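@channel sequence for tomorrow's demo:
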Amino acid sequence: MQTPMKYSLFYPSFKLRLLPQMLGIACLGAMVAGSYGILHDQVTYSISSEYFTKMKFDQFHDANLGLPPRILVSEIGFLATWWVGFFSAWFIARVAVPAWPPAVAMRKCLAGFSIMLMLAFIAALIGYGMGVFHSNDDAYWNEYCQALGITDIPAFVRVAYIHNASYLGGLAGLVVAICFLLRQKKIESSDGNKTARVL
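structure tokens (generated this afternoon):
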């Protein structure tokens, strides 16, 4: 009998044979998050190109291959989000894979991904609203934007709010997704025990 790998409270034990599926789901999460990041940044580039050309392009200068700006924006969108998807999907898989058969676990993980994407999208919309209606006082941003040479400060601020809110939404989505899966696991386990007692 194979001995489960032992971890701390935050990394409960699991059988080594489950590791490939969990890593596969984590890689899938990276691709999903990276694709979302590409679309996200294409939209925000349309709102404020300066957010990228005068800040993000410098932060990700190693990814600049001399291609058109929209291509670099896509690279930045992927690079900024794939790792979020990888680690989030890993934690989701850690809950789902040991608890359900492979096909069911995959469906549960996809449900978790959907929750994360939905909350990240909602958070992005809220962030946009905050950027538009944050009292129209850009004084807090003026010095920073002047240092960067930003000409359209309101648009820059809106995109900053969107990006920050999206990360918070993704984090909230991960928490909700894990809680959802744990509840599903508890309910199904309880139903299984009731059935066993009846039989």
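heads up for whoever presents: The chain has one domain: 20-198.
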